[in-house]
Amino acid sequence: MDTGLLIEKTILVVVIFAITLFIATYQTYMERKVAAWLQDRVGPDRAGPFGILQPIADAGKMFFKEDFIPANADKWLFIMGPGIAMFTASMTGAVIPWGPPLEMFGRTVVLQVADINIGILFIMGFASIGVYGIMIGGWASNNKFSLFAAIRASSQMISYELAMGISIITLVLMSGSLSLGEIVQQQHGMNWNILYQPVAFIVFFICSIAECNRAPFDLAECESELIGGYHTEYGSMKLGFFLFAEYVNLFISSAVISALFFGGYNFPGMDHFSGNALAILGTAAFFAKIIFFIFVIMWIRWTLPRFRYDQLMHLGWKKLIPIAMINLLITAVVIGFNSGWFTKKSAKVKQTEKSVAMMPKAKVDAQANYKINFNN
Amino acid sequence: MSSAQDYLPLVIQGVVALGFVVSVLIVTHLLGPRVHSKKKDSNFECGIESEGNARFPVSVRYFLTAILFVLFDVEVIFFYPYAVNFKALELEGLLAVILFVAFFLIGFLYVLKKGALEWEK
Predict the structure, then answer these.
(1) Could you say which of A30, A99, A306, A348 would form a disulfide bridge with A283 (CB–CB 3.0 to 4.6 Å)?
(2) From CA B43, how far away is CA B53, in angstroms rounded?
(3) pLDDT band for position A292 (cuts 50, 70, 90)
(4) CA-atom Rg of chain A in angstroms
(5) Which residues of A touch B54 (CB under 8 A)?
């Protein structure tokens, strides 16, 4: 990798990281405004015009709060918990294709930090490591409420990961690739996966809300039962990291939903544009989709009541996994049917027949004799 | 196809993310005030006196869920390489996978019948 590309990638990483943090910060503002709007209130309106500076003020306040560690907590694990949560949350953005390539300073800049061929597995992997942040943080606090919350959160997240994994496999069957860049390219124009895989979308959507620990799946931090959940004992930016990681995860899952099912940066009529205009419009379309999904998830939070724990497990294991599995089988059979595996002779059989036909006569006879001998 | 070089940006991403996390944790540690007292440093418990330790065993159902997850997640992971090569493997591959799914479902039904996922009782 040459130095120019390395510098380009570094700048891209920093810019995307800054945008992710900015959006995560302003999601707190958006959440409060959406909640206020849905409940017929005004919401934050004191800091700056329309309260636009509220998230900055909140972040500033967090920095100047006491960095509290309980006396009988495990000190290092207590610090590591929020660190892991934030680190894993900020790693996942690396494989998402943010837009079509941009022409800049005579270079073609691909708006994706790393187009690795296991993009989806990378995101799934880091989402799973994110469980450790909550688990370690909750356990290290040495608080009963935190411990219950940590156990609830981890068993909820691993339960929903199964259905999520299966629903992604359905998409991989269609696209034949695990690379997010390629999956998005295949949905060119209006050829979005949602048109073919509505069931997989619903399963994936529910699971990603559960993975983010968002209401109605926020059993890990339900105030009425567990005070604050796994972050009961946390203060200052350590608490901030847990909250921040949740919002970054929300942003990234909305981005993944848009990329997998809603065409990512593709939009209808994109063939009329090219070059930088396409790149800018595509990125704008992608962000519009992301913000739409963030809004929908917030809307769900302020509409639905919280699940009971057994209902949560029931939905995850007994509903979503079988639905995702049946959807997978149906998809596989339909693709096979469309490729003519059941009606015509498949290409593989043809290939063997062809090779038999091309063999010298004597060899075929020898093979036939061999078969007869074998049967005898 | 991606090569080892494609993973280099991920290392950069990791360094940036780690740098951010560590520096913020250090800054917030230095900035805030620190006041210690016996009562304040104890764990929060609804405002009453803290009883005992939070290192106690929890319901076995959570562990059961975790074990079942490991089992089924391994099965799900096996699907990924198959799904990528799905179109190349054709009918033969499909039949093999249907057999695999059958095993998966039999195991799943067994778990359900055994009541491993019943939380009400």
Answers:
(1) A99
(2) 10
(3) very high
(4) 25
(5) 141-144, 146-147
For B83-114, the pLDDT digits (tens) are 888 877 777 888 888 888 888 888 888 888 88
How do residues A248-291 score in pLDDT, each as one tens digit?
999 999 999 998 888 888 888 777 877 788 888 888 888 999 99
Report d(CA A176, CA A179) in Å as an integer: 9
Q: Domain B4-114 is of which CATH architecture?
A: Up-down Bundle (1.20)
Within 8 A of A67 by CB-CB distance, chain B residues are 28-29, 32, 34
Reported ipTM exceeds the 0.90 cut: no
Residues of B in contact with A13 (CB under 8 A): 9, 12-13, 16
Joined together, the tokens standing for residue B53 give 């330790």
pLDDT band (50, 70, 90) for residue A352:
low
**Predicted local confidence at residue A370, as pLDDT:** 47
DSSP A31: H
Residue A375's pLDDT is 42
The residue to which tokens 């509903």 are assigned: A319
Q: Assign residue A322 a region: left if phi > 0, alpha if psi is -120 to 50, beta otherwise? A: alpha
Inform me whether the C-beta atom of residue B84 falls under 8 Å from chain A C-beta atoms.
Answer: yes
- pLDDT above 80: residue A111: no
> What CA dihedral angle connects A289, A212, A116 and A26, to 10 degrees?
50
The two structure tokens encoding residue A341 = 């595996």
For chain B, give every domain's residue range.
4-114
A79 and B25 within 8 Å at the Cβ level: the answer is yes
Q: Are A280 and A262 in contact (CB under 8 A)?
A: no
B contact test, residue of A58, A68, A74 with most B CBs within 10 A = A68
pLDDT above 70 (res A373): no
Smallest CA-to-CA distance from A95 within A12, A181, A9 is with A181
Instruction: Single out the residue of A85, A191, A169 nearest to residue A120, CA to CA.
Output: A169
d(CA B18, CA A363): 65
> What amino acid is encoded at A288 in this protein?
A
Residue to test with chain A: of B5, B8, B12, most A Cβ within 10 A: B12
The residue type found at A332 is A
Candidates B49, B41, B85; CA nearest to A117 is B85
Interface test with B, best of A237, A238, A312, A346 (most B CBs within 10 A): A237
Cβ contact, residue pair A116, B2, below 8 Å: yes
Q: For A160-180, what is each residue's pLDDT tens digit?
A: 888 888 898 888 888 888 888
Rounded to 10 degrees, what is the CA torsion of A18, A19, A20, A22? 90
Choice among A54-58, A301-305, B33-37 with the minimum mean pLDDT: B33-37
